[in-house]
Amino acid sequence: MSFDFGRIPGKKSFADDYISTIRMNVAKYPKKTAVIFGDQTMTWTDVWENSNRLDFALLELGLNRHDRVLILLPNCPEYPEVVLGINKAACVATACNFRLTAPEVAYQLNDCGARAVILKSAAELETVLSIKDQVPALEHVIMVEDGAPEGVFDYKSLLAQAPAEEPDVETDPGDVHLLMYTSGTTGKPKAAARTYKSDYHMANAVCHELGLGSDDVYLAAAPMYAAASMGYTFSTMMSAGTLAILPAFIPDKIFPEIERVKATWIFMVPIMYEWMLSTPAEVLGASDVSSVRHVVSCGAPLHNATAKKMIDSFTQAKVSNWLGASEFGFISRYTYENGPAGEGCVGRPVFDLELAVFDEEGNRAAVDQPGVLYGRGFSMWEGYLNKPEATKEAFLDHEWGTVGDICRQGEDGNFYIVDRKNDMIITGGMNVYPVEIENVLMAHDAVADVAVIGVPDDKWGEAVKALVVKAQGSEISEDDLIAYCKENMAGFKTPKSVEFIDQVPRSMIGKALKAQMRKKYWEGKDTVI
């Protein structure tokens, strides 16, 4: 039986996506500060109208629904309006680490099939122009800073020529709006596809967990291209809060900036907290940080020693450890209101997400028994672009998905990360994928075999270590191989150390036994991540 209430039919201007929520916020708070960047401020009307202009400009360039636009920007005041404008044009925003090398950027451009790229400065432009002939789909390059050469569009000029009114573009909550690059056992990054609806629910979950509202000020100190930063940015935008964006992370500048902008919550990866809290006590004590309500850690394991430092430094705030992933947005949250739990504790599922641990046969694991952590809920990703097999491997069925964390659920109801099913390394909050580094090293004539692992590091959390078998007769040195890697990959991926071994231990089917190789370096640790 269907109901007919006699309502007037027509297209609705609202849906469960973040654009309609921001549209409502702009109507309520048109003059409220949306972005702070140094001495520059922008209202929500400014951000909204600039995103409208970008929307119109992309349409004028001939971009269509579902076309991909790569964002190659550092932290800057334009970041929120760029993401919003791309999505208003029904295009797919593709976040990219601006520190990647030219071949790494080329891979991402080709994999996602981007027709346009928006970049900041001459440095990023040089990278893109050096590989443009390798990227056949790329048609348009847009530069934010002044000085765009012939053949490159000037961002400010494009916006100045476009109307401030919102174009009438059809989007659907189920459409993919964002590609976040992550990786796995193939060694090549893969794009986790997120829909308007999934990020609407993800951001709502953050607002629910932290109680965010229009009076909150989020200090964006971590790179905005990262998945967690993107998620917390959406949450701020949906709650009509204020984004106080730092151009870069400088440890002794965080506390003064908190006082200056009256930040109410911050997010950084654990190593950033370690660096910040290692600055001299007189520097930390000179700033008033009493405005902070929430101190959030995500992106890498937060060890209890670091958490205690955070609690001691932000006495009026709630400290929380979040488990996140590009695929899910945010997975779980642990607060330290009752003190630290065991190492590896990531708490309980965030709002509107269910978690469970399954064994290798697909059955629910018993309490305290390790297995693969799966989740299901509204905020999950759709799958991996161009990689149906990786998508199939990530899902237990039509709804339970995993990123491969090995986990146990304790009797206290909290989830504890034990290890990773894949061998990803998190160093300084950056994801590093061993097979990608191994592929580079194996291309060197002096290398016969190699395995790359993560080892404990006081500064970085984990450090990249290459275990190398030399080719017969080779006299290659550790310094030589590290220098070679620096020439062929981003600095954060380059091994911090190289150890020469007689052979890489492997299983009967040839798989490198990395858990075995890591074991001696992690002895005495509560976790092996």
Automatic annotation (TrEMBL):
<dbReference type="InterPro" id="IPR025110">
    <property type="entry name" value="AMP-bd_C"/>
</dbReference>
<dbReference type="InterPro" id="IPR000873">
    <property type="entry name" value="AMP-dep_synth/lig_dom"/>
</dbReference>
<feature type="domain" description="AMP-binding enzyme C-terminal">
    <location>
        <begin position="436"/>
        <end position="511"/>
    </location>
</feature>
<dbReference type="InterPro" id="IPR050237">
    <property type="entry name" value="ATP-dep_AMP-bd_enzyme"/>
</dbReference>
<dbReference type="InterPro" id="IPR045851">
    <property type="entry name" value="AMP-bd_C_sf"/>
</dbReference>
<feature type="domain" description="AMP-dependent synthetase/ligase">
    <location>
        <begin position="24"/>
        <end position="385"/>
    </location>
</feature>
<dbReference type="InterPro" id="IPR020845">
    <property type="entry name" value="AMP-binding_CS"/>
</dbReference>
<dbReference type="InterPro" id="IPR042099">
    <property type="entry name" value="ANL_N_sf"/>
</dbReference>
<keyword id="KW-0436">Ligase</keyword>
<dbReference type="GO" id="GO:0016877">
    <property type="term" value="F:ligase activity, forming carbon-sulfur bonds"/>
</dbReference>
<comment type="similarity">
    <text>Belongs to the ATP-dependent AMP-binding enzyme family.</text>
</comment>
<dbReference type="Pfam" id="PF00501">
    <property type="entry name" value="AMP-binding"/>
</dbReference>
<dbReference type="Pfam" id="PF13193">
    <property type="entry name" value="AMP-binding_C"/>
</dbReference>
<protein>
    <submittedName>
        <fullName>Long-chain acyl-CoA synthetase</fullName>
    </submittedName>
</protein>
